[in-house]
Design a protein that fits this description.
alpha/beta, 3-stranded antiparallel sheet, globular
């Protein structure tokens, strides 16, 4: 199995006038091609720092981050669609930024929008769409440049609970159908269990990995997983690990 991301003994220190803050301490893990990996940890433990390191937005204080030449797409906590641009123009934005705004790339982005139910909203502005539809548009925007790995920074946290369940299921299906590798960070245990092939558990700050679990369910859809009797057992185990 091809490895697309690896953290090797990574530590991250921040410096300010108040002193030094250690966000991550000696973190090592890998993500393989086609996997959906979730990293859970308490609020403020350094999860977003971890994603920024994976994306190359930060350089580690110690250790190495290997990406094996792959490209990365970043999906944020909020959809961050520009309100003055139509959905279509929002989806094209990464193509413009990467100077890849060609007819071929636009056609691929529009095909994704049509495939996943956005074609009738392309001329709409974000304010006219529901939170769930805007998050779907944000995912299509991320996929428009065909990244190898998707970095998901608690992408459902801004939604209400019912919408969150539905959108999580929706986004999961799109990622699987497009055969993308995904790395999700979240503090929501249920969310991690419902989507992940593997789960890494982070300690409180300075964060280090305290557990790794391979998660196997006969069901593939997140909502179906939540109905499995094993779901509660996984929740209890991970809850205990997060609260040691």
């Amino acid at each position: 199995m091809k490895e697309v991301l690896r953290f090797e003994n990574v530590s991250m220190h921040y410096h300010s006038k108040q002193g030094e803050t250690v966000a991550l301490q000696d973190v090592s893990f890998s993500v393989n091609e086609g996997e959906f990996v979730a990293i859970i940890g308490p609020s403020g433990c350094g999860k977003t720092t971890l994603l920024s390191l994976a994306a190359g937005l930060l350089s580690p204080t110690k250790g190495k981050v290997y990406t094996n030449g792959g490209s990365f797409g970043y999906m944020l906590q909020k959809d961050e669609l520009f309100p003055w641009r139509t959905i279509e123009k929002n989806i094209f934005l990464p193509l413009e930024i990467k100077r890849a705004d060609t007819p071929e790339h636009r056609a691929r982005a529009l095909a994704l929008a049509e495939k996943y139910g956005l074609s009738q909203f392309l001329k709409n502005y974000p304010s006219s769409l529901s939170g769930g539809m805007r998050q779907r548009a944000a995912l299509i925007r991320t996929l428009s440049v065909d990244p190898d790995v998707l970095l998901l920074d608690e992408p459902f946290s801004a939604l209400d609970y019912q919408t969150r369940l539905s959108v999580c299921d929706d986004v999961y299906k799109i990622i699987r159908e497009e055969q993308k590798t995904a790395l999700l960070i979240t503090h929501d245990i249920s969310e991690a269990i419902s989507v992940a092939d593997r789960i890494f558990v982070l300690s409180k700050r300075p964060a280090s990995i305290i557990a790794e679990h391979a998660v196997a369910f006969p069901e593939t859809e997140p909502l179906k997983r939540r109905e499995n009797k094993e779901f509660s057992r996984w929740f209890e185990l991970l809850w205990k690990e997060l609260n040691v």
